[in-house]
Design goal:
single chain; about 270 residues; alpha/beta; TIM Barrel; 6-stranded parallel beta sheet; about 15% strand
Length: about 270
């Protein structure tokens, strides 16, 4: 056990030394049952910028499966353990559902960040070795070893967090936070990116007046009518991407976690 721990920390130490001295930004996305068009809209933007996006998926998507097979995205799982869950009636059901979606998944991020120690243990036994399941508020927390044996990669920015806390959606107002050295993991949601969400009530009102089927099948014409025209998440994220390309090292999340190869904890 001590040997396992020493090896894990040795790898972490080596990676941390680089990550804390470099301005590194990587982009991830939680799908949250978005329609195929909405997923395509987000993924294609990052493909146009030659950025490999890590996508945490909640449900089956032919588009995402095709992109994953082509190697143009890194597909991982986004289990929803909050009941009632469309993914299953029990924690084991939810894990089974997600592992059937992405059998090779090694990373998880839970919907609404909801997971317990028991859930971590179950996920670990199913081959999950990494997590990105802690959301900070513009705080650069270096990856660490979770009690489960997983390597944890905290999130620096989440679209929902800055909307909830009332931060300005003008990128220049928080630009200095991205100019500092350190690893910054970005997390966003494709529906916010499509609608240019300015506040939760804007998107909530749209969702409440649509059926689940309508919400899950929004197309380009629908989104064009619904998209907010002022300062919103889309504008913020696009400016962040432009900034990252010219002022930082844009690194695929996959390249980060693959650097730390943790064997089975026993």
């Amino acid at each position: 056990m001590n040997k396992w721990l020493d090896e894990a920390y040795a790898q972490l130490k080596q990676c941390r030394l680089k990550w804390q001295e470099t301005n590194m930004i990587c982009f991830t996305m939680d799908t949250d049952w978005a329609s195929e068009y909405v997923l395509q809209h987000a993924v294609n933007f990052f493909k146009e910028h030659h950025i490999l996006l890590t996508v945490f998926c909640t449900n089956k998507s032919e588009f995402l499966q095709k992109e994953a097979r082509a190697g143009t995205i890194d597909l991982q799982i986004h289990p929803n353990f909050i009941m009632p869950s469309s993914q299953g009636k029990t924690e084991d059901d939810v894990i089974n559902f997600c592992k059937e979606l992405v059998p090779e998944a090694s990373v998880f991020r839970a919907h609404r960040w909801y997971a317990s120690n028991d859930i971590y243990e179950k996920l670990y036994r199913r081959g999950i070795r990494y997590e990105s399941n802690v959301c900070t508020l513009f705080d650069m927390v270096l990856p660490y070893l979770h009690r489960s044996g997983m390597v944890a990669f905290p999130v620096f920015f989440e679209d929902g967090a800055i909307i909830e806390r009332g931060f300005s959606l003008k990128f220049n107002d928080t630009k200095e936070k991205y100019e500092k050295k350190g690893l910054k993991i970005i997390n966003f949601h494709p529906m916010h990116f499509a609608l240019n969400t300015p506040c939760f009530s804007y998107t909530r009102e749209i969702k409440d007046r649509l059926t689940r089927e309508q919400w899950n099948n929004l197309d380009d014409a629908d989104i064009e009518k619904l998209r907010f025209q002022g300062d919103g998440i889309t504008n913020y994220l696009k400016e962040l991407v432009f900034f990252a390309e010219s002022h930082s090292e844009v690194c695929p999340f996959k390249d980060l976690y693959k650097l730390i190869q943790v064997e089975n904890l026993s």
